[in-house]
């Protein structure tokens, strides 16, 4: 572990998947070795200093024995690999580890085959999904390893007991593709069945441009659905906030990656009701620690929500199993494996 490590990451404010993952890599994993961090976001944060930043980056690359990349854009990541190869030679890419952000890299390589050699030459590509490892095989990269999206275990909160009212939470960007309109329609259906006093829904998230008026109309039609605003997870306690609820609920048709909110719910002792879009079924077991519904399908969502409203024992079991599964997504669980790969 004596190799000098350079971690090239991105830390845009205030909060996002890339920032969270890179911060955990820097603070919880690489802090235990001889590591230096270079924040690529400084190029945007300090445009007047571009020449000096470029020089500093080049010097850092030349002085490193090992390099880890945590870059949010596939094109920027590929460019960075090219810069490293130019400064240190192609063979040095065998000392470079790539941490995938999201799910698009395999698709990007399929569309840009001229970039594949850089990733083939890398020491390892850490992928957030086991199915993505098969996708990398199809584009000729056989050096991927599984590393799930993770969080810090010390912030976990045991599940609260289920009360007389089931508290649902929507914790995502507020837009139709994420299923907010489907959720409102499902709530209206449940209310019409006489269940209005048995559940409520709290909505957190930024409302996308052009959707505010429609969102306000949806809220006005569902008296037991309340908008809480965009939660500042950079300064607030995500697990503590989510812990107040029983089940996160969404029927997104979005091409989901390994959703950070799904993982945070495990650490908060909250069950997940999610669609089978993207990688959701890889981290939420249907009937085990959550329920899987069809994307943006009102009937499917109504059935899932009704089941936990009417069966509190089921809901309690899902919450407990969700919390117990958190260890599989704890950064501490993966620290030794990551260091062995990156620095070994």
UniProtKB/TrEMBL annotation:
A single MF term (Gene Ontology): glycosyltransferase activity
Glycosyl transferase family domain span: 165-324
Pfam family, one: Glycos_transf_1
This protein's name: Glycosyl transferase family 1 domain-containing protein
Organismal lineage: Bacteria, Bacillati, Actinomycetota, Coriobacteriia, Eggerthellales
